[in-house]
Amino acid sequence: MARSKPSRRAIAGILPCLFALLAFTFSLLSVTSPEWASRDQYPDNTNAISQKAPIYTLFRSPFQICIASPVPADDEPSSPTNSTTPDEGDEDEPDNQPPPAPTNLIHTTTCTHYHLYGLNKTSCELPSTLGTNLATNVGDARQCQQIHLSGNYLVASAVFLGVSMLAILILFVTNLSDSLKYRSRPSPEHGNGANHLKHVHHFPKILTILPTILNPLVIAGIITALIAQFYAIEGLIQSAPNNGDWTTSQGNREKHDPWVQGKALSTYLSLSWFWALLAGWSSWLLWGGYARRNLAAVMAGSESSMGDRDGHEGVKVK
Fold first, then answer.
1. How do residues 212-224 score in pLDDT, each as one tens digit?
2. What is the DSSP letter of 238?
3. Which residues of 29-39 are buried (b: 16+ CB within 10 A; e: fewer)?
4. What does DSSP say about strands 56-60 and 37-41: parallel, antiparallel, or unpaired?
5. Residues contacting residue 188 through CB under 8 Å, at least 6 positions apart
6. pTM of the predicted model over 0.85
7. Burial level of 210, CB count in 10 A (0-12/13-18/19+)?
8. Whose C-alpha in 33, 213, 239, 246 is 20 to 30 A from the C-alpha of 200?
């Protein structure tokens, strides 16, 4: 029977919910992950040809900067202590020698979190603001503008996709509830009079309003995510210090690779707008008909009221 169609449509609404949840999840991972841009560092005694195994990797995002600090390894042998009596010929030598410098070092990476806005609170500041050009978050005006725009568009994309996910969940729950109520109604008895009239199913207004609002939200989330990717590539990679010098010197003067895209920029953010595209497309296929049906009903009602008014006026003329 035709009454099973709303139920199938309601169950199929799980797919847009899943797509929207994945889009919002990857958007949050993009916001919180520092791996937007990465750079491998190599030992000082290597050149560009022998750079194979990095000793550590630096990361940077619009909101985080990670630096590495050398610390002694856990298996570093402790310096021996002299507990015996020195020989007669060793009287001139000092008894307490300074411990030798550790030779087996490892590097620990620590990340600093920065704010979205605020003077001297963001991940890129001008030297005139910081009072030094040696800080980890120092940059020129071009690089800072690109990094700030990337972060702003990233947050905007996460907000749009989050609101879109809530709208899709509301559509799913409302459609499922309305479908169950409609299927539980008794069938109209066939006979004369009013019972013979066709039963009209009036859908909740939210099913006719939200699909119209949902598409602009999803499109805004996708566009802002793409813009955030563009500015991040410009600010964190193309405008990053030493990248041009590494290219011109072919790596001979640097002991590290150039800045490259990390998994948050190339994977997480791309998956967020990809799943958002699927969520918007599937939700419009399922629930876009409600908006079109409501518009057709409104237009039909207005035409009917105009026809009734013309009929009454015709009677008055006669």
1. 889 899 999 999 9
2. I
3. bbbebbbbbbb
4. antiparallel
5. 195, 196, 197, 198, 199
6. no
7. buried
8. 213
Considering only CA atoms, which of 264, 284, 43 is closest in space to residue 167? Answer: 284
Distance, CA of 59 to CA of 107 (rounded, Å)? 14
8 A C-beta contact, residue 109 and residue 60: no
Q: Which spans in the chain are helix H?
A: 5-12, 14-32, 127-130, 141-184, 205-232, 243-249, 263, 269-317
First to last CA, the chain: 48
Residue 138, token pair as written in the block? 């120092």
Q: What is the token pair recorded at 310?
A: 């013309």
DSSP 74-127: TTPPPPP---SPPPGGGTTS-SSPPPPPPSSEEEEEEEEE--SSSTTTSS-B-H
pLDDT tens digit sequence for 27-54: 999 999 999 999 988 887 666 666 677 8
Which one-letter amino acid corresponds to residue 267?
A: T
The alpha carbon of 310 is separated from its chain's Cα centroid by a whole number of angstroms, namely 57
For tokens 């919180």, name the residue.
32
Buried/exposed code over 266-275 (b: 16+ C-beta within 10 A; e: otherwise) = bbbbbbbbbb
Q: Would you put residue 230 in left (φ > 0), alpha (ψ -120 to 50) or beta? A: alpha
Task: Give the relative orientation of helices 14-32 and 5-12 as an angle to the nearest 10 degrees.
Answer: 10
- Judge whether residue 72 has pLDDT over 80: no
Q: How many CB atoms lie within 10 A of CB 304?
A: 10
Residues 63 and 65: their CA atoms lie apart, in Å, by: 7
d(CA 129, CA 114): 15
Q: Count CB atoms within 10 A of the CB of residue 205.
A: 11
Cα separation, 255 vs 251, in Å, equals 7
